[in-house]
Amino acid sequence: MFRLVKILNGRINQGEPVKLPTTPGESYSFGEALVLNGGKLTKCGATTMPTHICGEDYNAPSSNNRPITAEPISADMIFEVPFSAAPGSVNAGDKVTLGTDGLQITATTASGVATIFDKCGASATGDKCLVQFK
After folding, report:
1. For residues 27 and 42, what is the distance between their CA atoms, to the nearest angstrom?
2. CA–CA separation, 32 and 42 (whole Å)
3. CA 102 to mean position of chain CA atoms
4. What does the buried/exposed string (b/e) look like for 8-27 if buried means 16 or more CB atoms within 10 Å of the residue's CB?
5. What DSSP letter does each residue of 30-73 carry, written as one string?
6. CA–CA distance, 13 with 134 (Å, rounded to integer)
7. Fewest beta carbons less than 10 Å away: which of 9, 50, 107, 109?
8. Residue 63 has pLDDT above 80, yes or no
């Protein structure tokens, strides 16, 4: 899960939540990276730059779904997130892809979207590091 830990040069470490429409039939998880597409929040592909972090768990029905809380992402936000695989030789400054669940990052740098801010000593699957989306 992407957890906001700091906003650089910010006075607070909390983003401004918004309510946005959801895509019918999709499941959302707290802390999941999402993208706003066609006016609705949807899953983010591994190489798609996310625009929001999900603020609640929600299973959208095929009709009559409701908006959910999400936090818009800005380049000055630092998120803590686990690796879905051992990070290997990934270092600060490298851009990695998102995990298939939108809740983790990989150690793949080809077409990466999450910039490693601090590896935090991560060396194994599940270890956490700090990332930015810029």
Report:
1. 9
2. 10
3. 6
4. eeeeeeebeeeebebeeeee
5. TT-EEEEETTEEEE--TTSPP-EEE-S-EE--SSS---EEEEE-
6. 18
7. 9
8. yes
User: What's the confidence (pLDDT) of residue 10?
Assistant: 65
d(CA 37, CA 50): 10
Task: Return the residue matching tokens 């990934």.
Answer: 90
Q: What is the pLDDT of residue 64?
A: 86
Question: Do residues 105 and 83 touch, judged by C-beta distance below 8 A?
Answer: yes
Residues with Cβ within 8 Å of 18's Cβ and at least 6 positions away in sequence, in order, are 52, 69, 70, 71, 72
What amino acid occupies position 67? P
For residue 94, the cross-strand partners are none
How far is Cα of residue 51 from the mean position of the Cα atoms in its chain? 8
In tens, the pLDDT along 110-122 reads 999 999 999 999 9
Q: What is the rounded distance in angstroms from the CA atom of residue 1 to the CA atom of residue 5?
A: 12
**Residue 13 in this model has a pLDDT that exceeds 70:** no
How far apart CA 48 and CA 45 sit, in angstroms, is 5
